[in-house]
Write a structure and sequence with these properties.
By secondary structure, this protein is an alpha/beta fold. 34% of the residues lie in helices and 11% in strands. It has 7 helices and 5 strands; from the N terminus they run ααβαββββαααα. β1, α3 and β2 form a beta-alpha-beta unit. The structure holds zinc ion (ZN). Pfam families: Peptidase_M57 (PF12388).
């Protein structure tokens, strides 16, 4: 993380509190986040993942495209890094939805921690101590449930959960989609993004990239 990352984060949080009120920074309490059942039905539809940007079809034969997209580097966390996260409580249709999303993210984070990939996730109580915040966005885009980010030097990142994630047939499986998105936070790319025979939307589909994370 860049030396000024925490300064940037605090400035952003201060502005948020000034404009929206200090309650906007209220987080879900760790004690209210309980374990979720991992015994779930398959997802009714394959969610679309927009975290990995699409690459123009004429660049798809370039091996670098799958790894770095159109950027100039492959960002990675230092081995041993701890990616700290928290969850904002406001913005959801109900407090129960905020707790639900946080519980499923915790389940996903624990799955990655158990996999022991050299970088761990840790829940923290306040956004001022976090690398990313789980936050709700009201978008009812077809099949868009969650979006995340790749490793970077920003002071604060967001993992967004969208309206569809709370539909009854997606709700119980949210942790699966979040596990995929945390893979991107760790730096993983879609394994089939270079396939010239796949449309961009299919190349970004969770169902295909899920092979990386769930075998
Ligand atoms: Zn993805």
């Amino acid at each position: 993380m860049a030396p000024d990352a925490s300064t940037t984060r605090e400035a952003l949080l201060q502005l948020t509190a000034q404009h929206l009120g200090p309650e906007a920074l209220t987080t879900v309490e760790d004690s209210r986040i309980s374990a979720v059942s991992t015994d779930t039905e398959p997802l009714p539809l394959s969610p679309v993942c927009i975290t990995q940007e699409s690459v123009p079809r004429n660049l798809k034969s370039d091996p670098a495209a799958i790894m770095v997209g159109l950027e100039s580097e492959i960002p990675r966390w230092e081995p041993g890094s701890v990616v700290k996260w928290t969850a904002w409580q406001m913005g959801y249709d109900s407090p129960a939805d905020a707790t639900h999303a946080a519980a499923h993210l915790k389940q996903a984070a624990e799955a990655w921690n158990k996999a022991d990939v050299g970088v761990n996730f840790e829940f923290v109580a306040l956004a001022k101590d976090a690398n990313f915040v789980l936050s709700m966005v009201v978008i009812r885009e077809m099949c868009l449930l969650v979006s995340a980010y790749f490793p970077n030097r920003k002071g604060l990142n967001f993992l967004y959960v969208y309206s569809l994630a709370f539909r009854p047939d997606f709700r119980k499986s949210l942790w699966k989609v979040l596990t995929h998105e945390l893979g991107h936070v760790l730096g993983l790319r879609h394994e089939l993004a270079m396939d010239p025979n796949l449309s961009v939307s299919k190349a970004m589909r969770y169902k295909l990239a899920r092979k990386i994370h769930f075998r």
